[in-house]
Specification:
GO terms for molecular function: catalytic activity; metal ion binding. This is Mandelate racemase/muconate lactonizing enzyme C-terminal domain-containing protein. The chain has helices at 20-28, 37-55, 86-97, 112-125, 141-153, 170-181, 202-205, 216-219, 222-234, 248-255; strands at 2-3, 6-7, 77-80, 102-106, 130-134, 156-160, 189-192, 211-214, 238-241, 263-264, 277-278, 281-282, 288-289, 299-300. It is of the alpha/beta class and 303 residues long. It has 2 domains: 2-61, no CATH class; 67-300, TIM Barrel, CATH 3.20.20.120. The longest helix has 19 residues, at 37-55. It has an 8-stranded parallel sheet with strand order 3-4-5-6-7-8-9-10. Strands 1-2 form a two-stranded antiparallel sheet. The protein has a two-stranded antiparallel ribbon with strand order 11-14.
């Protein structure tokens, strides 16, 4: 979405089943309530960019002062898709670990032995790395219980969304009971992603998780993401700042919240063949490097 010098974007994600044509039509002439999350986010980020540009400030200036933030370099997370060739996967992990301190594995392949091999290969290839894993709802509670000891053995520190969000709150309660009975596996933090869309979802999950994933698209607005972070911190839980597959424009908008998160998983733009914007990057040590400038701070790449 573009107006004057301000440009914004929002990704379409298959599991939200949002209609692209009606979203684009509404964005051409916004009236009434946005029909989709993508429409709401695109319009909101445009307004945020315009407001911050007028003040000569970045989007991070919209975060209230009372919300504690981190100082110093912000380590970024680098994600891996589920591999089929473990020899290539081992090489990729080893190479990536030379730059990034935190590696994120995708699990939930449909075969627990395959998932175990992913974890083992990653650890052997990057013995000193901090490794976390995202199952994207691919396991049952029982499968999660079976996998946790292996994740402990391989020194993973975090497991995200082990079972599908359609199952509601009960699997989270069940897993919490199982972990309470087995303190040895409780060393791994359990985070929710799709099961918590906005700040309103945080209180019901809070007793059963160690943290939650915050994404701009889930919340629908930049302010909604801030409110979700506030709600998570109010419960004493951890914040994982995530993203969808989007350009550097969307990733840079999300990166303005990185100082208020414990982990920054912001590499969705690296999966694009052509990125139309220059914005947030990573230095040689895998730390986030924000593109300087007011508003979102990403700029179009001349073609």
């Amino acid at each position: 979405m573009k107006e004057g010098d301000s440009i914004s974007e929002a990704p379409f994600v298959p599991y939200y089943h949002e209609d692209i044509e009606s979203t684009l039509e509404w964005l051409r002439q916004p009236q009434g309530k946005p029909p989709t999350r993508a429409a709401a986010l695109a319009l909101d980020l445009l307004k945020c960019d315009q407001d911050c540009r007028a003040r000569g400030a970045g989007l991070s200036s919209l975060v209230p002062d009372h919300l504690p933030k981190k100082s110093g370099p912000i380590p970024a997370c680098r994600s891996f898709s589920i591999p089929t060739d473990f020899s290539d996967f081992a090489k990729l992990v080893a190479e990536t670990a030379h730059q990034f301190l935190i590696l994120k594995l995708k699990l939930g392949s449909g075969d627990l032995e395959h998932d175990r091999q992913i974890v083992t290969t990653a650890r052997n290839s990057a013995p000193g790395a901090t490794i976390i894993a995202d199952v994207n709802g691919g396991w049952t509670v029982q499968e999660t219980q079976q996998m946790l000891p292996h994740l402990v053995d391989q020194r993973l520190i975090l497991l995200e969304q082990p079972f599908h969000h359609d199952h509601g709150i009960e699997p989270w309660k069940e897993l919490h009971r199982l972990r309470t009975r087995n303190p040895a596996v409780s060393i791994i933090r359990i985070y929710a992603d799709e099961s918590a869309q906005t700040a309103d979802d945080v209180p019901k999950l809070a007793p059963y998780v160690d943290g939650l994933n915050v994404k701009l698209l889930k919340c629908g607005t930049f302010g909604g993401a801030v409110r979700m972070i506030e709600a998570i911190r109010k419960q004493g839980l951890g914040v994982l700042l995530g993203c969808m597959i989007e350009s550097s424009l969307g990733i840079t908008a999300a990166a303005h919240l990185a100082r208020w998160a414990d982990l920054a998983d912001l590499d969705g733009h690296l999966y694009l063949a052509d990125d139309d914007f220059a914005g947030v990057t990573f230095d040689a040590d895998g730390f986030l490097q924000m593109h300087e400038g007011p508003g979102i701070g990403a700029v179009p790449i001349p073609r």
